[in-house]
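Sat 14:20. Reprocessing the chain from the morning session after the first attempt stalled halfway. Input below, unchanged.
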Amino acid sequence: MTAKHGATHNVSSVSASRTAGWMMGACGEQMTILTAMAMSVESIGEAKAEEARAAAEARLKGRLSAEEVASTNAALVWALAQLRVKHRHL
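Finished this time. Tokens:
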């Protein structure tokens, strides 16, 4: 399935795709995306996200295992995504 932003796209068959953290399905001209990570702009605490960003950046300066680096990078990306969304909707 191919979807393009801002374009009309017909999907002639029912299809679904699932990856880590989200699932997408299409039938006809309707598409549904389900995710466990969605949140409203109002529920994003800017101070809390900024604190999480700073904590992750500080932690990355220390000595970490490969697993700790991966989880800390994931936390940093999540905090930055929240801040980006929050700032876009100010």
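The longest helix spans residues 66-88.
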